[in-house]
């Protein structure tokens, strides 16, 4: 975009160029948000992360249109005194830093709780320095639906009042303490409460985002290619990995859990609206998801298998899926959210945002990316003789 074009917000007011501190800019969401901001706005980004691989293409010097509008700081927020200074220099802090892969919640609960709660210094610094904060939480704070506790054949299970998740009325329902899966959700819930309290008692200007399964290119990693061989990423990357290797897709506990998936590029539009409309976004918690893209994990596996056959030109396996128990796949202490349908009333009313991309279309563009990016590397890795 021509940085000189005057941008207008939803209330018809001009948008002043901002300096945005993005903590966790090098991750999946951060990389897409940086791209969007650089391509479509005049805002500056102070990009903070311990990794920069996913934004490498945005950091190359000089030739790019946005040179000078993004600055990378390799900082671990746990122990770096520069953090507060960077917050003071910025108009807005966006905090994306988190451990957010379910495979870690029950196996590395301490890291999960520390990274998501104890290390959340940005909240304190934003509050003390009167700086605006957009904090990324998770739809997982809802935990399980009320409906999941009803008898299997109860007609009430069909009533949206028992499963649609609303920011201002739904309770947060987690399993017992030994189900360490909920360590993440619980840490995230507590930090939401801390931010809310900072708003109420100290006037912190905040927005909380609850992403509902955002997926797309650059999400997580492909084990053994750009991540550890034994690593377990989220479902999109697990299934992509299996498709690339022509292995069966593993369905945890029958693949009966339901999810709604939203395309990362749709979701990023919502975040940009929050950035540029503080009067409409401050003080709010927003679900960001696509209620129209609901599937069971089994249906997702079937759809990804069909899409990948189209994209790669290779026929699908005769039996593309296999059932595994959660204990076998994730280990002790795993538990699951049964169903996640976001209520969209608040984001619609405040920001007029709606998701656009169907599940089929978003899988088509994402698996095209996965195939282009990884197919060769996976073939090479498979053909290497294994050392005994
Ligand atoms: N899942 C699965 N096979 C896999 C990876 C995940 O069946 O190879 C299931 C998992 O048990 C959960 C759903 O897929 O029910 C979504 O998992 P994900 O890791 O993407 O994160 P979540 O939505 O639970 O936060």
TrEMBL record:
Q: What one GO molecular function would you report for this record? A: carboxy-lyase activity
Q: Which UniProt keywords apply?
A: NAD
Highest taxon above the source species: Eukaryota
Q: Which residues form the NAD-dependent epimerase/dehydratase domain?
A: 20-289
Stretches of the chain forming a coiled coil according to its record: none
The record, for Pfam families, names: Epimerase
Q: By its UniProt entry, which PANTHER family does this protein fall under?
A: BIFUNCTIONAL POLYMYXIN RESISTANCE PROTEIN ARNA, UDP-D-APIOSE_UDP-D-XYLOSE SYNTHASE 2
Protein's recorded name = NAD-dependent epimerase/dehydratase domain-containing protein
User: Which species is listed as the source?
Assistant: Populus tomentosa (Chinese white poplar)
């Amino acid at each position: 975009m021509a940085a000189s074009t005057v941008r207008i917000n939803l209330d018809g007011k001009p948008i002043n160029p901002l300096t945005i501190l993005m903590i966790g800019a090098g991750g999946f969401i951060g990389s897409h948000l940086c791209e969007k901001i650089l391509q479509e706005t005049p805002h500056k980004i102070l990009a903070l992360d311990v990794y920069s691989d996913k934004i490498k293409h945005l950091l190359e010097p000089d030739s790019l249109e946005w040179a000078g509008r993004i600055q990378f700081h390799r900082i671990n927020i746990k122990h770096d005194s520069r953090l507060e200074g960077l917050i003071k220099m910025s108009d807005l802090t966006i905090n994306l830093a988190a451990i957010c892969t379910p495979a870690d919640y029950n196996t590395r609960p301490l890291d999960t709780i520390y990274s998501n709660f104890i290390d959340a210094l940005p909240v304190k610094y934003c509050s003390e320095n009167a700086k605006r904060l957009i904090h990324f939480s998770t739809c997982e704070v809802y935990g399980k639906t009320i409906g999941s506790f009803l008898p299997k054949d109860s007609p009430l299970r069909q009533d949206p009042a028992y499963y649609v998740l609303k920011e201002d009325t739904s309770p947060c329902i987690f399993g017992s303490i030994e189900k360490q899966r909920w360590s993440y959700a619980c840490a995230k819930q507590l930090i939401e409460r801390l931010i809310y309290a900072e708003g109420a008692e100290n006037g912190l200007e905040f927005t909380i985002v609850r992403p509902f399964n955002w997926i797309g290119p650059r999400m997580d990693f492909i084990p053994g290619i750009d991540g550890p061989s034994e690593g377990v990423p989220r479902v999109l990357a697990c299934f992509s990995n299996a498709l690339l290797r022509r292995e069966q897709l593993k369905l945890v506990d029958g693949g009966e859990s339901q999810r709604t998936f939203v395309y990362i590029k749709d979701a990023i539009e919502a975040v940009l609206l929050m950035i540029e409309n503080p009067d409409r976004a401050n003080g709010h918690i927003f679900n960001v998801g696509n209620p129209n893209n609901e599937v069971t994990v089994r249906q997702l596996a079937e759809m990804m298998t069909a899409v990948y056959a189209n994209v790669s030109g290779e026929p699908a396996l005769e039996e593309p899926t296999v059932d595994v128990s959660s204990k076998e796949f994730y280990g002790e202490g795993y538990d699951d959210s049964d169903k996640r349908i976001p209520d969209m009333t608040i984001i619609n009313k405040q920001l007029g945002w709606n998701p656009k991309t169907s599940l089929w279309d978003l899988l088509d563009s994402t698996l095209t990316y996965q195939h282009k990016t990884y197919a060769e590397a996976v073939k090479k890795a498979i053909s290497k003789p294994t050392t005994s």
